Amino acid sequence: MADEAKQPVEMTLKEFFENVPPGQTARVPNLAKRFRSDTPLCEIELPPIQLHCASKHCEGIRFFDPTDNSRNARPRARYNFFANYVCRNCKTFHKTYAFWAVVHEDETTGDVFKFGEVPPFGPPTPPRVITLIREERDYYLKGRRSENQGLGIAAFAYYRRVVENQKGRIFDEIIRVCDKLGAQDELIGELKAAKQETQFSKAMGVIKHAVPQALLIDGHNPLSLLHNALSEGLHAQTDEQCLELAQSIRVVLFDLVERMANALRDDAELKGAVSRLLRPASGSDKETPK
Predict the structure, then answer these.
(1) Rounded distance, CA 126 to CA 160, Å?
(2) b vs e for 88-102, b when ≥16 Cβ sit within 10 Å of the residue's Cβ?
(3) Between β-strands 32-34 and 42-45, what pairing exists: parallel, antiparallel or unpaired?
(4) What are the CB-based long-range contacts (under 8 Å, 24+) for 245-251?
């Protein structure tokens, strides 16, 4: 039973590249195929994958193709490989993996292990998040590395420190949105009072009113979601539970930052549109030619 528990999770090679962080092993049922009948070599074909492309031409999920389509290996022997991918759309953004592979005796199934990848594993951090956290950038990046390596307690501790230390800036941005959207004076007053609290948990005790609709995440107050995650004690959770909480903190923080930016941008765009429509058309008072 113990040996069965240690068996790697089965998945495709595409899923392995896209979804598995470095330092983990996976079992790929159709990893290889027979190269030629007159040689003992098997062929590992690298599949197209989908990743986030960070080039200025893309900035989104795109298809990536391998620059070299296949690798050769003998069954039952471990081989170290590099796999280089390039964005199919812009053809300038690259992704490189370092991994080993072992093809089993059936010459099709195999195990793969990921040493690392460049750029690092995981979704990119929006620039707005880095702007918001500022002085805590190094701690945030340490949290990301810990999360990618499956170190839940470390990731949770780093993310909690980032949110606690940048609590004031988070409340400042929410207050800006409330001012722009004409929120109730009582809510703005509560947010200003909450900002003065030393701890995020105490700050949440001050807020009684709901945040503007534009900031709700799936109908829930993002501050309450962060509070629920941060209030979980490190000593009461397993490393796996801390990892889930850390991922939740990051995802909610990302979404909150995007929603705040969209609310401010939409308001600015709307005001600009109204201003342009109210502006008299140039030459409208000129005499119409006969």
Answers:
(1) 19
(2) eeeeebebebebebb
(3) antiparallel
(4) 245/152, 245/156, 246/143, 246/146, 246/147, 246/152, 246/155, 246/156, 246/158, 246/159, 247/147, 247/155, 249/156, 249/159, 249/160, 249/163, 250/143, 250/144, 250/147, 250/159
Query: Which residue, 174, 140, 126, is CA-closest to 246?
Result: 140
Q: Quote the pLDDT of residue 64.
A: 98
233: CB partners within 8 A, 6+ apart: none
Residue 71 CB partners (closer than 8 Å, separation 6+): 43, 44, 46, 79, 81, 83, 101
Identify whether the C-beta of residue 229 lies closer than 8 Å to the C-beta of residue 245: yes
Q: What is the DSSP string of 154-181?
A: HHHHHHHHHHHHTHHHHHHHHHHHHHHH
pLDDT (tens digit per residue) in 216-259:
998 899 999 998 888 876 777 899 899 999 999 999 999 999 99
Nearest Cα neighbor of 180 from 265, 264, 270, 269 is: 264
Overall pTM surpassing 0.85 (yes/no): no
* Whole-angstrom distance, CA of residue 85 vs CA of residue 87: 7
Structure tokens at 111: 């195990």
